[in-house]
Amino acid sequence: AKKKGRSETEFFKGEMNQFRIERLQLESYLRHAVVKNEMMIYYQPQYCLHDSRISGFEALIRWNHPLHGIISPREFIPVAEEMGVICEIGKYVLFEACRQLKDWHNKGYDHLSVSVNVSGRQLQNLNFIYEVKEALETAGLQPKYLHLELTETIMIENVQHSLNIMKELKALGVKLSIDDFGTGYSALSYIKDLPIDILKIDQTFIQNLLNNGSNKTDIAIVKAIITMCQVLSVDVVAEGVETPEQMELLKQFGCHHIQGYVISKPVESAAVRCLLEA
Ligand code: C2E
Ligand code: CA
Ligand code: CA
Ligand code: CA
User: Fold this and answer.
1) Which pairing describes strands 113-117 and 69-71: parallel, antiparallel, or unpaired?
2) If you compute the radius of gyration of the chain from its CA atoms, what whole number of angstroms results?
3) Which ligand 1 atom is the nearest neighbour of the CA of 118?
4) Where is the EAL domain (predicted)?
Protein backbone atom coordinates (compact mmCIF):
# COMPACT_ATOMS: atom_id res chain seq x y z
CA ALA A 1 0.00 0.00 0.00
CA LYS A 2 2.94 2.29 0.82
CA LYS A 3 4.21 2.26 -2.74
CA LYS A 4 0.89 3.08 -4.35
CA GLY A 5 0.90 6.23 -6.40
CA ARG A 6 4.59 6.17 -7.28
CA SER A 7 4.44 7.63 -10.72
CA GLU A 8 6.60 7.09 -13.74
CA THR A 9 7.96 10.57 -13.26
CA GLU A 10 9.42 9.49 -9.93
CA PHE A 11 10.81 6.44 -11.66
CA PHE A 12 12.67 8.59 -14.18
CA LYS A 13 14.06 10.71 -11.37
CA GLY A 14 15.35 7.51 -9.77
CA GLU A 15 17.48 4.78 -11.22
CA MET A 16 17.11 5.77 -14.85
CA ASN A 17 17.56 9.53 -14.73
CA GLN A 18 20.60 9.42 -17.00
CA PHE A 19 18.51 9.08 -20.06
CA ARG A 20 14.98 10.02 -20.86
CA ILE A 21 13.25 7.17 -22.51
CA GLU A 22 9.78 7.28 -23.87
CA ARG A 23 7.09 5.42 -22.04
CA LEU A 24 6.82 2.93 -24.90
CA GLN A 25 10.53 2.32 -24.83
CA LEU A 26 10.46 1.66 -21.10
CA GLU A 27 7.54 -0.68 -21.60
CA SER A 28 9.46 -2.58 -24.22
CA TYR A 29 12.54 -2.65 -21.93
CA LEU A 30 10.44 -4.11 -19.14
CA ARG A 31 8.82 -6.64 -21.47
CA HIS A 32 12.17 -7.64 -22.90
CA ALA A 33 13.64 -7.88 -19.43
CA VAL A 34 11.60 -11.03 -18.87
CA VAL A 35 12.45 -12.53 -22.26
CA LYS A 36 16.13 -11.64 -21.92
CA ASN A 37 16.32 -13.22 -18.49
CA GLU A 38 17.17 -9.97 -16.74
CA MET A 39 14.63 -10.61 -14.00
CA MET A 40 16.15 -12.41 -11.05
CA ILE A 41 14.43 -13.86 -8.03
CA TYR A 42 15.94 -13.51 -4.59
CA TYR A 43 14.67 -15.62 -1.72
CA GLN A 44 14.25 -14.49 1.87
CA PRO A 45 13.78 -17.14 4.57
CA GLN A 46 10.73 -17.31 6.79
CA TYR A 47 11.76 -18.82 10.10
CA CYS A 48 9.60 -20.91 12.42
CA LEU A 49 10.29 -19.98 16.07
CA HIS A 50 8.39 -23.05 17.19
CA ASP A 51 10.47 -25.58 15.23
CA SER A 52 13.65 -23.43 15.19
CA ARG A 53 14.15 -23.85 11.47
CA ILE A 54 13.48 -22.19 8.15
CA SER A 55 9.94 -23.01 7.06
CA GLY A 56 9.91 -21.37 3.66
CA PHE A 57 11.02 -18.49 1.47
CA GLU A 58 9.47 -15.37 -0.01
CA ALA A 59 10.30 -14.83 -3.68
CA LEU A 60 11.37 -11.21 -4.25
CA ILE A 61 12.12 -9.98 -7.73
CA ARG A 62 15.01 -7.76 -8.86
CA TRP A 63 15.80 -6.40 -12.32
CA ASN A 64 19.40 -6.97 -13.30
CA HIS A 65 19.65 -4.21 -15.88
CA PRO A 66 22.64 -4.48 -18.27
CA LEU A 67 23.47 -0.78 -17.81
CA HIS A 68 22.07 0.13 -14.41
CA GLY A 69 22.79 -2.98 -12.41
CA ILE A 70 20.31 -4.32 -9.90
CA ILE A 71 17.10 -2.30 -9.73
CA SER A 72 14.80 -2.67 -6.72
CA PRO A 73 11.21 -3.84 -7.19
CA ARG A 74 10.10 -0.67 -5.42
CA GLU A 75 11.36 1.19 -8.52
CA PHE A 76 9.89 -0.87 -11.32
CA ILE A 77 6.88 -2.77 -9.94
CA PRO A 78 4.67 0.35 -9.81
CA VAL A 79 5.62 1.16 -13.43
CA ALA A 80 5.06 -2.44 -14.50
CA GLU A 81 1.64 -2.28 -12.82
CA GLU A 82 0.68 0.90 -14.65
CA MET A 83 1.73 -0.65 -17.95
CA GLY A 84 0.24 -4.06 -17.36
CA VAL A 85 3.64 -5.74 -17.85
CA ILE A 86 3.27 -6.92 -14.25
CA CYS A 87 1.19 -9.84 -15.52
CA GLU A 88 4.13 -11.21 -17.51
CA ILE A 89 6.60 -10.51 -14.72
CA GLY A 90 4.25 -12.07 -12.19
CA LYS A 91 3.77 -15.16 -14.33
CA TYR A 92 7.52 -15.58 -14.57
CA VAL A 93 7.92 -15.32 -10.78
CA LEU A 94 5.11 -17.81 -10.23
CA PHE A 95 6.54 -20.46 -12.56
CA GLU A 96 10.15 -19.97 -11.51
CA ALA A 97 9.40 -19.96 -7.76
CA CYS A 98 7.40 -23.20 -8.08
CA ARG A 99 10.14 -24.82 -10.14
CA GLN A 100 12.82 -23.72 -7.67
CA LEU A 101 10.86 -24.93 -4.65
CA LYS A 102 10.34 -28.35 -6.26
CA ASP A 103 14.09 -28.52 -6.75
CA TRP A 104 14.66 -27.88 -3.02
CA HIS A 105 12.01 -30.47 -2.18
CA ASN A 106 13.85 -32.96 -4.39
CA LYS A 107 17.06 -32.21 -2.48
CA GLY A 108 15.36 -33.32 0.74
CA TYR A 109 14.01 -30.02 2.08
CA ASP A 110 10.47 -31.08 1.40
CA HIS A 111 8.83 -29.13 4.25
CA LEU A 112 9.59 -25.76 2.63
CA SER A 113 6.98 -23.39 1.22
CA VAL A 114 7.37 -20.51 -1.20
CA SER A 115 5.50 -17.19 -0.98
CA VAL A 116 4.82 -15.27 -4.17
CA ASN A 117 3.60 -11.65 -4.29
CA VAL A 118 0.52 -11.08 -6.42
CA SER A 119 -0.36 -7.63 -7.72
CA GLY A 120 -3.89 -6.30 -8.15
CA ARG A 121 -3.57 -6.33 -11.93
CA GLN A 122 -2.77 -10.04 -11.87
CA LEU A 123 -5.77 -10.83 -9.74
CA GLN A 124 -8.01 -9.01 -12.25
CA ASN A 125 -6.54 -11.10 -15.07
CA LEU A 126 -8.96 -13.85 -16.06
CA ASN A 127 -6.04 -16.18 -16.80
CA PHE A 128 -4.63 -15.98 -13.31
CA ILE A 129 -6.26 -19.09 -11.83
CA TYR A 130 -5.22 -21.07 -14.88
CA GLU A 131 -1.63 -19.81 -14.58
CA VAL A 132 -1.42 -20.82 -10.92
CA LYS A 133 -2.70 -24.28 -11.79
CA GLU A 134 -0.28 -24.60 -14.68
CA ALA A 135 2.69 -23.43 -12.59
CA LEU A 136 1.93 -26.07 -9.96
CA GLU A 137 1.42 -28.82 -12.54
CA THR A 138 4.52 -27.93 -14.54
CA ALA A 139 6.64 -28.02 -11.38
CA GLY A 140 4.87 -31.08 -9.99
CA LEU A 141 4.34 -29.21 -6.74
CA GLN A 142 1.65 -29.88 -4.15
CA PRO A 143 -0.53 -26.73 -3.95
CA LYS A 144 -0.28 -26.31 -0.17
CA TYR A 145 3.38 -25.35 -0.50
CA LEU A 146 2.53 -22.30 -2.59
CA HIS A 147 1.53 -19.22 -0.60
CA LEU A 148 0.12 -16.26 -2.50
CA GLU A 149 0.59 -12.84 -0.88
CA LEU A 150 -2.11 -10.26 -1.49
CA THR A 151 -2.32 -6.81 0.10
CA GLU A 152 -5.36 -5.58 1.98
CA THR A 153 -5.82 -2.81 -0.56
CA ILE A 154 -6.12 -5.30 -3.43
CA MET A 155 -8.74 -7.33 -1.61
CA ILE A 156 -10.79 -4.36 -0.56
CA GLU A 157 -10.69 -2.49 -3.89
CA ASN A 158 -13.02 -4.97 -5.52
CA VAL A 159 -14.33 -7.11 -2.71
CA GLN A 160 -16.73 -9.37 -4.58
CA HIS A 161 -14.37 -10.13 -7.46
CA SER A 162 -11.42 -10.68 -5.11
CA LEU A 163 -13.48 -12.93 -2.88
CA ASN A 164 -14.54 -15.09 -5.85
CA ILE A 165 -10.96 -15.48 -7.05
CA MET A 166 -9.72 -16.16 -3.55
CA LYS A 167 -12.28 -18.94 -3.19
CA GLU A 168 -11.16 -20.47 -6.50
CA LEU A 169 -7.53 -20.30 -5.39
CA LYS A 170 -8.43 -21.92 -2.08
CA ALA A 171 -10.21 -24.67 -4.03
CA LEU A 172 -6.92 -25.37 -5.84
CA GLY A 173 -5.32 -25.91 -2.44
CA VAL A 174 -2.88 -23.00 -2.33
CA LYS A 175 -2.57 -20.86 0.82
CA LEU A 176 -3.45 -17.19 0.91
CA SER A 177 -1.61 -14.49 2.87
CA ILE A 178 -2.48 -10.89 3.67
CA ASP A 179 0.68 -8.88 3.08
CA ASP A 180 1.61 -5.59 4.82
CA PHE A 181 -1.18 -6.03 7.35
CA GLY A 182 -2.03 -2.82 9.18
CA THR A 183 -0.92 -0.38 6.49
CA GLY A 184 -4.25 -0.18 4.68
CA TYR A 185 -7.43 1.32 5.97
CA SER A 186 -9.44 -1.85 6.07
CA ALA A 187 -11.67 -2.83 8.93
CA LEU A 188 -10.63 -5.78 11.02
CA SER A 189 -14.01 -7.36 10.30
CA TYR A 190 -12.80 -8.20 6.76
CA ILE A 191 -10.37 -10.70 8.16
CA LYS A 192 -13.04 -13.07 9.38
CA ASP A 193 -14.90 -12.95 6.05
CA LEU A 194 -11.90 -13.60 3.80
CA PRO A 195 -10.49 -17.10 3.22
CA ILE A 196 -7.09 -16.20 4.65
CA ASP A 197 -4.51 -18.69 5.97
CA ILE A 198 -1.66 -16.34 6.86
CA LEU A 199 -1.37 -12.74 7.99
CA LYS A 200 1.88 -10.82 7.68
CA ILE A 201 2.26 -8.01 10.20
CA ASP A 202 3.84 -5.08 8.37
CA GLN A 203 7.42 -4.24 9.21
CA THR A 204 6.57 -0.72 10.38
CA PHE A 205 4.86 -2.23 13.45
CA ILE A 206 7.73 -4.58 14.13
CA GLN A 207 10.35 -1.87 13.83
CA ASN A 208 8.43 0.20 16.39
CA LEU A 209 8.89 -2.64 18.85
CA LEU A 210 11.74 -1.98 21.26
CA ASN A 211 13.33 0.92 19.40
CA ASN A 212 13.91 4.28 21.08
CA GLY A 213 10.56 5.73 20.20
CA SER A 214 8.62 2.61 21.06
CA ASN A 215 5.75 2.81 23.47
CA LYS A 216 3.16 0.59 25.05
CA THR A 217 0.72 1.18 22.20
CA ASP A 218 2.98 -0.33 19.51
CA ILE A 219 3.57 -3.38 21.65
CA ALA A 220 -0.14 -3.70 22.44
CA ILE A 221 -1.11 -3.55 18.73
CA VAL A 222 1.28 -6.32 17.74
CA LYS A 223 0.17 -8.42 20.67
CA ALA A 224 -3.50 -7.86 19.79
CA ILE A 225 -2.96 -8.86 16.14
CA ILE A 226 -1.24 -12.07 17.20
CA THR A 227 -4.01 -12.90 19.67
CA MET A 228 -6.70 -12.18 17.07
CA CYS A 229 -4.99 -14.53 14.62
CA GLN A 230 -4.81 -17.29 17.21
CA VAL A 231 -8.56 -16.98 17.76
CA LEU A 232 -9.21 -17.09 14.00
CA SER A 233 -6.67 -19.91 13.42
CA VAL A 234 -4.72 -17.72 11.05
CA ASP A 235 -0.93 -18.14 10.94
CA VAL A 236 1.08 -14.99 11.68
CA VAL A 237 4.34 -13.94 10.08
CA ALA A 238 6.09 -10.91 11.59
CA GLU A 239 7.94 -9.05 8.82
CA GLY A 240 11.07 -6.94 9.05
CA VAL A 241 12.41 -8.48 12.27
CA GLU A 242 15.92 -7.08 12.64
CA THR A 243 17.03 -7.75 16.21
CA PRO A 244 17.17 -10.75 18.57
CA GLU A 245 15.21 -8.67 21.11
CA GLN A 246 12.31 -8.18 18.69
CA MET A 247 12.47 -11.89 17.90
CA GLU A 248 12.33 -12.82 21.60
CA LEU A 249 9.36 -10.55 22.29
CA LEU A 250 7.44 -11.95 19.31
CA LYS A 251 8.13 -15.45 20.54
CA GLN A 252 6.73 -14.52 23.97
CA PHE A 253 3.60 -13.22 22.28
CA GLY A 254 3.10 -16.59 20.59
CA CYS A 255 4.09 -15.53 17.09
CA HIS A 256 5.38 -18.61 15.28
CA HIS A 257 6.88 -17.21 12.11
CA ILE A 258 9.26 -14.35 11.45
CA GLN A 259 10.97 -12.90 8.42
CA GLY A 260 13.71 -10.29 8.47
CA TYR A 261 17.37 -9.39 8.50
CA VAL A 262 17.81 -11.06 11.92
CA ILE A 263 17.55 -14.36 10.02
CA SER A 264 18.79 -13.27 6.58
CA LYS A 265 18.41 -10.71 3.83
CA PRO A 266 16.95 -11.97 0.56
CA VAL A 267 19.62 -14.05 -1.25
CA GLU A 268 20.14 -15.59 -4.67
CA SER A 269 18.86 -19.12 -5.10
CA ALA A 270 22.42 -20.47 -5.16
CA ALA A 271 22.98 -19.19 -1.61
CA VAL A 272 19.85 -20.81 -0.19
CA ARG A 273 21.57 -24.15 0.37
CA CYS A 274 24.01 -22.49 2.81
CA LEU A 275 21.13 -21.02 4.80
CA LEU A 276 19.41 -24.40 4.99
CA GLU A 277 22.56 -26.17 6.12
CA ALA A 278 23.56 -23.50 8.66
P1 C2E B 1 7.10 -6.91 0.49
O2 C2E B 1 6.29 -7.94 -0.20
O3 C2E B 1 6.52 -6.30 1.72
O4 C2E B 1 8.50 -7.59 0.78
C5 C2E B 1 9.28 -7.35 1.93
C6 C2E B 1 10.34 -6.31 1.67
O7 C2E B 1 11.00 -5.98 2.90
C8 C2E B 1 11.44 -6.78 0.74
O9 C2E B 1 11.90 -5.65 -0.01
C10 C2E B 1 12.53 -7.25 1.72
O11 C2E B 1 13.81 -7.26 1.16
C12 C2E B 1 12.39 -6.20 2.80
N13 C2E B 1 12.85 -6.70 4.10
C14 C2E B 1 12.85 -7.97 4.55
N15 C2E B 1 13.33 -8.05 5.81
C16 C2E B 1 13.64 -6.80 6.18
C17 C2E B 1 14.18 -6.24 7.41
O18 C2E B 1 14.46 -6.92 8.39
N19 C2E B 1 14.34 -4.88 7.42
C20 C2E B 1 14.01 -4.09 6.36
N21 C2E B 1 14.22 -2.79 6.46
N22 C2E B 1 13.51 -4.60 5.18
C23 C2E B 1 13.32 -5.93 5.11
P24 C2E B 1 12.14 -5.76 -1.60
O25 C2E B 1 12.70 -7.10 -1.96
O26 C2E B 1 12.87 -4.53 -2.01
O27 C2E B 1 10.67 -5.72 -2.19
C28 C2E B 1 9.90 -4.55 -2.07
C29 C2E B 1 8.47 -4.79 -2.50
O30 C2E B 1 8.37 -5.04 -3.90
C31 C2E B 1 7.81 -6.01 -1.85
O32 C2E B 1 7.42 -5.70 -0.52
C33 C2E B 1 6.67 -6.24 -2.79
O34 C2E B 1 5.59 -5.39 -2.49
C35 C2E B 1 7.27 -5.86 -4.14
N36 C2E B 1 7.69 -7.06 -4.86
C37 C2E B 1 8.84 -7.76 -4.78
N38 C2E B 1 8.82 -8.83 -5.60
C39 C2E B 1 7.61 -8.82 -6.22
C40 C2E B 1 6.97 -9.65 -7.20
O41 C2E B 1 7.50 -10.69 -7.65
N42 C2E B 1 5.71 -9.29 -7.59
C43 C2E B 1 5.09 -8.19 -7.08
N44 C2E B 1 3.84 -7.89 -7.53
N45 C2E B 1 5.65 -7.39 -6.17
C46 C2E B 1 6.90 -7.69 -5.74
CA1 CA C 1 5.29 -9.77 0.32
CA1 CA D 1 5.14 -7.12 3.26
CA1 CA E 1 4.68 -4.64 0.35
Assistant:
1) unpaired
2) 19
3) 44
4) 23-278
Query: CA torsion 267→269→271→273, rounded to 10°?
Result: 130
Output the pTM of the full model: 0.91
**pLDDT per residue over 88-100, tens digit each?**
999 999 999 999 9
260 ligand 1 Cβ < 6 A: yes
Phi-psi region of 175 (alpha: psi -120 to 50; beta: other; left: phi over 0): beta
Element (H, E) at 261: none
CA 46 to centroid of ligand 3, rounded, Å: 12
- Between the two ends of the chain, the Cα-to-Cα distance in Å is 34
Q: Cβ atoms within 10 A of the Cβ of 72, count?
A: 13
Local confidence band at 5 (pLDDT 50, 70, 90 cut-offs)? very low
74 CB within 6 A, ligand 1: yes
- 155 within 8 A of 166, measured Cβ to Cβ: yes
At 102-155, the pLDDT tens digits run 999 999 999 999 999 999 999 989 899 999 999 999 999 999 999 999 998 888
- Which of 6, 85, 117 to mutate for ligand 1's pocket (most ligand atoms within 8 Å of CB)? 117
C-alpha of residue 180 to centroid of ligand 3, in Å: 4
User: What is the Cα–Cα distance from 238 to 259, expressed in whole angstroms?
Assistant: 6
3-state class (DSSP) for residue 42 = strand
- Residues 6+ away with beta carbon under 8 Å from 122: 86, 87, 90, 128
Q: Is the separation of the CB atoms in 161 and 125 below 8 Å?
A: no
Query: Which residue's CA lies nearest to atom 2 of ligand 1?
Result: 117
Q: pLDDT band for position 3 (50/70/90)? A: very low
